[in-house]
Amino acid sequence: MRTLGALTVLWLASWGNLGLAQETSESCGDCHEQSKQLAGTSHAKVGCSACHPKHEAYPHPSGMARPACAQCHEGIAAEHSRSVHGRALKAGNEAAPTCAVCHGKAHEVKPAAAAEFRRAEPETCGMCHSQVAEQFGASVHGVAAARGVTAAPVCTDCHGEHAILGPGTQASPVSPGHIRETCARCHGSVQLSRRFGFSSDRIISFDTSFHGLAARAGSQSVANCASCHGIHNILPSSDPRSTIHPKNLPATCGRCHPGAGQRFALGTTHQWAGRGEAPAVVWARYAYRILIPLVVGLMLLHNLGDWVRKLIARRFRFEPVPPARAGLGELRMYGFERLQHALLLVSFTALVWTGFALKYPDQWWARPLVHWEQYWPVRGTLHRAAAVVMLAVAAAHLTSLVASRRLRRHWQTLWPRRSDVGEAVGMLAYNLGLIPRKPRVSAHSYVEKAEYWAVVWGTVIMAATGLMLWFNNLTLAWLPKSWLDLATVVHLYEAILATLSIVVWHFYFVIFDPEVYPLETAFLTGYSVKLRRAEAAEEQGVEEGAEHEVSRESE
Q: Which of 64, 272, 475, 509 is least enclosed by beta carbons within 10 angstroms?
């Protein structure tokens, strides 16, 4: 019986609490108008006792502390305290907004997800930020929000809700480092772009541009979305007031690039491979996409056939590689030429690493350089320094050819001849097994000449386009933007072609060719291992497996 009595008491108590909760909207409303205002608000299901302790006592105790929102919304209150508003309150600014300023009184709080609340956000924020609210109201976003488009961004979509931070704070969604992600929430959405008819490739085209690549690497000063489109006064490009209207682009771009667009129209800004590019840029891209596989493919066929032939001769026919002939033989590279080669080797390697790190900052091999990008522009600085070294080497080479007859006569051995074409075609056919007999090849053959003139060609192209990119302000001031776009494309694809040529062609003949493996030492000592082995093979009557039959040319 005692147990049954205890259960009865507990049941009555729970029924009494239920009645107390119901009393929130009924009994309390008999005296308090605020209770009637709760209907349809976020607090409609919250009992009075949750915020008003000892309310059941009558008369109500006087001096009761006003309930704090943090009692239920602890996490939100913590976010608010860290925001610009919360810090202003802590600093004694009584005008800084509190919960009630934005959400209304506790008995009138509307759900934040309601369309009515979102539509009123600009007006609410405009109580303190009147000028910003006026700009936003006239913008594409503000106009859409006023029409009731719930997907249109309002203040909290960009700035955050409670943890609002200043744009100078790194963690802020509108800071230079995060504004791209903030804008991408809408402008990177295929669903929204189809629904509202705006371009879906704006984020992609920005990411592939110089500005986007620099921003991804951590640059805080490079132009971002707001730099060109504005912050709150974002207008369509067709609006004469817009910062991206064709007539206003010179002023907009001129903030970073003085003189840009003053002589020629800047044209399309958001563009990426195959979309929005000038015809010359498109043709250059297609030309390189054909040229690179063709040239590198022929190199691979040539060298792979040569390597397979020598592998068969050495491993299956047991024809040994003849030892190098005693003595030093012919001097292939003079001391000054070896110095030039060393500087070229260092500068080219640095250019390749830093250049591709600028284009592909997310790759693992770029991370050691990108890691320091927020503190110092490592990639760009090293890239330009290496370019200066390469240009200095080119200038020294030209000067030496003019000043030294000895070097000039040595250089003449690399001058192309009509017979080089026949030798190259014949060796390719021989390496592929199309002809049975190995053709005669000069001592200074098409192999060395192709390497040398490829370097000359590549240096001229890379220097011209690289200087246009380096001094982009001058380029934009005196030439159409399409020229800079063309320089960007040519510089990238020429770099890819040069890198692959070095790896596939040059590295084979100085490292992987069985005739010189493990290393052709001419760039160190000036004397060629391959030539000395070929001369030894000729003396021994060995023809198969030696790449060169010595054909001396009088100097």
A: 64
